[in-house]
Design brief:
This protein is an alpha/beta fold and 291 residues long. 42% of the residues lie in helices and 15% in strands. It starts with 11 loop residues before the first helix and ends in a 10-residue tail after the last helix.
Length: 291
C-alpha cells in the first residue's frame, strides 16, 4: 500500500498544494503530527483539514482515516472552533479508496474486521458543521466522503462518481444511500450501475453541491468564508440547526416537524436567545455567549 510513512519526509511548505498555500496568510496554527493530513486555522473559529497524500491522489486508507477521525474529534471538542472545512488538492479531493489496501482482502477478513467502518465512525457524530471543498477527482470513497459533509462546495472542473462497479464491487461507505437522497433513485442507479462520472457543474445543477466555483482557489476560499460566517453565529443555535436538518433525512415529516418544534422551544432556555433578540431590538451586533 502506498503510504506517506514510506515516502521521504518533506517540509509542509513543499508538500502543501497551491490551494492551501493561498490561505497561509490567515493561518494561526498548523499541525505536522499527521502523515496523511494537514490541519490549519485559516480564520478564527475555522478548522481546515487538507488530505495530503499527493502521490496517491489522496487515496483513502485506514491510516488516513485514523488521522482524519482524530482531527475531526479534536476540532469538534474545541470550543474555539465553530466549523470545519475538508479539502484535498487541486488534482484530487480524494481519488478513491486505496486499492492496494483492498485488493487482497478476503470476505472473512473484510467481514470480521468490519472493513471501512472506520470511515463513518466519527463524521456522522460531529456536531459542528463540516463543509467539503471539492476540487479535482472525488471518486468512489472520495465521493462518499464528500457526501458525508453537511455542505459541499466544488469547482466546475471537479469530477464526482461511484466507479466501484468497474472493480467488481459496489459502494461500501454510503454511496448507494446518500447519492440517491441527493439526486434521486433513477439518476443514482444509472451512475452506480455504469460507473459513469459527473462534473462539478452537474453537481451544482443536481443539488449535490451548494455552490460551484470557477477555480479551485475560489472554491476553498468560499468554503472558508462560509465556515467563518457560521463560526460567527451562536454555537448552540448552529448545532441545533444542524441536528434538525439532519433529522429530516431520518424521520417522517410529521415526526420531523415535532422534533424541530421541541428543539426550537428548548432554545428559549438559552442565554444566546436572549442575547440575539435583545441585540436585534437594540439594532446592534450580538455578542454570543455560546450558552
Amino acid at each position: 500500500m502506498a503510504s506517506t510513512r514510506a515516502m521521504r519526509r518533506l517540509p509542509i511548505a513543499a508538500r502543501a498544494s497551491s490551494v492551501l498555500r493561498s490561505h497561509r496568510r490567515y493561518s494561526s496554527a498548523s499541525s505536522s503530527s499527521y502523515d496523511n493530513i494537514l490541519v490549519t486555522t485559516p480564520k478564527p473559529g475555522v478548522g481546515l483539514i487538507t488530505l495530503n497524500r499527493p502521490r496517491a491522489l489522496n487515496a483513502l486508507s485506514t491510516a488516513l482515516f485514523r488521522e482524519l477521525n482524530d482531527a475531526l474529534r479534536q476540532l469538534d471538542d474545541d470550543e474555539s472552533t465553530g466549523a470545519i472545512v475538508l479539502t484535498g488538492s487541486e488534482k484530487a479531493f480524494a481519488a478513491g479508496a486505496d486499492i492496494m489496501e483492498m485488493k487482497d482482502l478476503t470476505f472473512s477478513e473484510a467481514f470480521n474486521t468490519n472493513f471501512i467502518s472506520l470511515w463513518s465512525a466519527i463524521i456522522p457524530s460531529v456536531r459542528i458543521p463540516l463543509i467539503a471543498a471539492v476540487n479535482g477527482h472525488a471518486l468512489g470513497g472520495g465521493c462518499e466522503l464528500a457526501l458525508m459533509a453537511d455542505i459541499i462546495y466544488c469547482s466546475s472542473t471537479a469530477t464526482f462518481g461511484q466507479p466501484e462497479i468497474k472493480l467488481g464491487i459496489i459502494p461500501g461507505a454510503g454511496g448507494s444511500q446518500r447519492l440517491i437522497k441527493a439526486i434521486g433513485k433513477s439518476r443514482a442507479m444509472e451512475l452506480i450501475l455504469t460507473g459513469k462520472n459527473f462534473s462539478g457543474v452537474e453537481a451544482g445543477q443536481w443539488g449535490v453541491a451548494a455552490h460551484v466555483f470557477d477555480t479551485s482557489e475560489a472554491c476553498v476560499q468560499g468554503a472558508i468564508d462560509t465556515a467563518s460566517r457560521i463560526a460567527g453565529m451562536s454555537t448552540l443555535a448552529v448545532k441545533a440547526a444542524k441536528e434538525v436538518v439532519n433529522k429530516s433525512q431520518d424521520l417522517p415529516l410529521r415526526d420531523g416537524l415535532e422534533y424541530e418544534r421541541k428543539l426550537f422551544h428548548s432554545l428559549f432556555g438559552s442565554r444566546d436567545q436572549k442575547i440575539g433578540m435583545a441585540a436585534f431590538a437594540e439594532k446592534k451586533k450580538p455578542e454570543w455567549s455560546h450558552q
